[in-house]
Amino acid sequence: MKAIKVMILGAGGMLGSALCDVFPESIKFTHKELDITNRQLIIDTIMKNNPDVVINAAAYTKVDQAEDEQEFAFDVNGHAPGYIAEGCSLTGAKLIHYSTDYVFDGTRSEYTESDKTNPINAYGRSKLLGEQMIARHTDNYMIIRTSWLFGKHGKNFVDTMLRLSPQMEKVKVVNDQLGRPTYTVDLARKTAKIIDQEPGIYHITNDGKCSWYEFASAIIPNVVPCTSTEYPTKAKRPEYSVLNNAKTTPMRHWKDSLDEYIQEKRTWEE
Asked: Residue 265: pLDDT above 90?
């Protein structure tokens, strides 16, 4: 079987670094090495390297800040994936791109791949535009929607809880937003397993669902629940953004992944 040539964009990020571990022979670009918002540059780079698969793990992920930086968020999350898709279309490469549960409005208990999108914040709208731009420029794509990512090499909820816990008597966390936590290591490994599957949209998360409070309770002991009204944020969040994946076999439960991540984190920090 011929080895496939993989290019990873956003290789220095939390998901990108996990993908680099899974695809060690891949062509890798961090955001400092390649500006994906430069249309001609990204098209030229894809054509020059001529990969079989381009995996785009680059993204603007600051949900609240996106409300104030909408132009930048839409450039990175919306227009840039379209440029990448153009390059893939010209070379015949398959594009794998990661999207989010925040393309939904949170009015349903679970969402399948075919459910209607309706983002309620700027970040979600920017990611939905990315999905639309990809579909406009190529048919050979896999859009993987995921949620509540945690892992090494990036800011995430788990690390935030571990940092705040010793600093505060009680850590307030909302108990009225539900989703599925996802470990970057598991998502990267799953990407490799489904790389040859049919083009389209896939929901991929760790198994099990919880509120942010329940997630925090599995990380630290001194957490107390509150409502979204008590803890307002600049960007509105969907109440229920549970992704139901009907296209692939489930990954392990998020609690098992969390235990592994915290254990490995202790090893890194020793």
From this structure: no
Element of type H or E holding 100: strand 94-100
Mean pLDDT on 111-119: 97
Q: Does 183 qualify as catalytic in the annotation?
A: no
**CA nearest 240: which of 156, 122, 115, 129?**
115
* Cα–Cα distance, 167 to 2 (Å, whole number): 53
Describe the crossing of helices 184-194 and 14-22 by its angle, rounded to 10 degrees. Answer: 50
Domain boundaries 6-156+180-208+242-253, corresponding CATH code: 3.40.50.720
Q: Which of 141, 156, 99 is nearest to 124 (CA)?
A: 99
Q: Return the half-sphere exposure (C-beta side, CA atoms, 13 A cut-off) of residue 163.
A: 6
CA distance 191 to 93: 16
Q: 21-73: per-residue pLDDT in tens?
A: 999 999 999 999 999 999 999 999 999 999 999 999 999 999 999 999 999 99
Full DSSP string of 152-186: SSS--HHHHHHHHTTT-S-EEEESS-EE--EEHHH
**For the chain, domain boundaries:** 6-156+180-208+242-253
Catalytic residue among 83, 102, 111, 123: 123
What angle, 0 to 180 degrees and rounded to 10, lies between the N-to-C axes of helices 157-164 and 254-269?
60
